[in-house]
């Protein structure tokens, strides 16, 4: 028996599925399952994180409910996945953050936005906060660049450390060789599989959302969200290089690279999360881990808020609203960073690690 | 009086949907009546995984050619010649085009599943399994404008002089109604889930049979047709039956309760006696004889017995093997006579000749001096823990059916073809399968004759 009830159930299902195997062409979970005859906690957490929740195996399964075998792989693995996030969280004492995650994330977001507004108000006089500031260095009248850079670097570095420690625990638990180098081929394969969401695909027809027709657009919305996020990150990195290498200070004109990248990314970060949210609300509850509603929506909301405040800031940066909007945007980004290791963001990290492991296993088996 | 359709299809599985789609593509208005609720739609199709079709060259998913002639020889061997050659050869010829036609209806293929490599050349596997295949057919049918009703129990057929006029339908909410149609396609399966009917031929033994599919395959349409003058075909005791785990549910255990470990051990009955050569032939060619073999044993129970050395030689099983550190301990758990089981295993071990084990060919590991012999893959059972699976006959589908001609048209008693009644799938499988079975044949019969029946039914409705 396993450590938790959900892992016991996942074990039961994998035993059923391993004696059937009809779904092996749908995704990576079932071929990975077939490489095993028994399942440890780590194996099950690995399979849970390999699952992209496309729903095809539920619609295709002759044993899904109301059948007495009650096989519901997407839901079971969704719950196991969410529990694995808490189990591997670093530091351990913060693993409780995954329970009531939506509430926690909203509180942190509200607090950090309030802190930036208050901070600006306290540090600057009203004329600066609500004044019209344009031209290079306008943002830094509200908050000195070095302070901004230090604060956000610290937040990001903490997030990276916490995520690295968490994924290390996961990596060890799923039986991957620790210390051994990941071969380039497996890494490249995993980057491709993650980058194109190869397994969010229902085995070729698309995913299942509200009914038994594969019409799900989550893959598109996820691409918009993910690549939007990536573009925004690149935009910020380019701006940092501008600042330190050439002494060019933000804000930049609309045609300049950081603004173009940030705008494209921002559009993705607005449309993508809205689409994901709508899909989440329409989805057949049978496929969902409904108790994690807050975690799912909390993360989507944070991404949307980041994109939305960023775009507003761009549009209104030459008005008196710039000050408050900058505070809101920085608050959103700060909250996003520090909650990264304790919310839905981690799904990407664990899933990527699982894809690397899967690519390795395929190579070893071949 | 309800409305009138060109083609009425009774049944909701592969054969029924192929018929409905083919009739609709032929321009007919089509109503499908499925007796089961939506989740259980499709009868045995929901449990299938592949189809055996002839092909002259390897494809993306098939590893090599499987000619019409080879298919025919396989059919001849498994049925022991109990088949209608003209009809069977026609089916095999038509099966070649089904490989493409079924894809046009939205079904997707994949290479043979892990653990089934021996079928990789002959059988095309459905991506996602039989229910995925069925879902694709339903989506296509509905897109084309085929009407489908679930929980639609047909309680009577109005047939005059070999001509179908109407079906009486009982619906859970809307009550009884009559549905008229110009042509009928009966694709409602066999009677394997009707234990009372099985008892007419098997006696009380039928109580110990497990039914691999849904409880809805009661043969009520078959019975109505035979009672109203359609000629019957096939031996009523013949069916596709395999040995499945005795711990499986009475109905709908599907594929996962099967055992493919027979060739790795021995099989004994409740008296701890062996009763058949466990190493007769490559497993996929002979697995389907074990249902009948177990059915013929006392209390319809048997035990596959092997030892710890072969546990990983076959696919993992739903139910774990029952284990004992000694033969006597295992016998105790199985409620067999320990002395008898020890004697059987000791004699078997003593009869095993040295050889080179290879389960993929007919190897030279065999016994000498015992009856029955184990002619291949015989190795001593001597490494504890000793392990066992209890097995019972698991019936997939029965072969008693309606006689049809090459147009899938039913023949009446006396041999006259019906003017407007067609049959496809398990309800007429007995035309091709007099006995025996080879993997994937049921789906071939369903798709080929379903497509033909739909086409002919639409053609009749047009004229």
From TrEMBL, chain B:
PANTHER family: FAD-DEPENDENT OXIDOREDUCTASE 2 FAD BINDING DOMAIN-CONTAINING PROTEIN, FUMARATE REDUCTASE
Organism: Bradyrhizobium vignae
Keyword set includes Nucleotide-binding: no
Residues in FAD-dependent oxidoreductase 2 FAD-binding domain copies: 6-433
Pfam (any one): FAD_binding_2
Database matches in InterPro entries: CobZ (IPR012831), FAD-dep_OxRdtase_2_FAD-bd (IPR003953), FAD-oxidoreductase_2 (IPR050315), FAD/NAD-bd_sf (IPR036188), Succ_DH/fumarate_Rdtase_cat_sf (IPR027477)
Organism ancestry: Bacteria, Pseudomonadati, Pseudomonadota, Alphaproteobacteria, Hyphomicrobiales
Keywords in alphabetical order: FAD, Flavoprotein, Oxidoreductase
Protein name (record): FAD-dependent tricarballylate dehydrogenase TcuA
Cofactor(s) essential for the protein: FAD
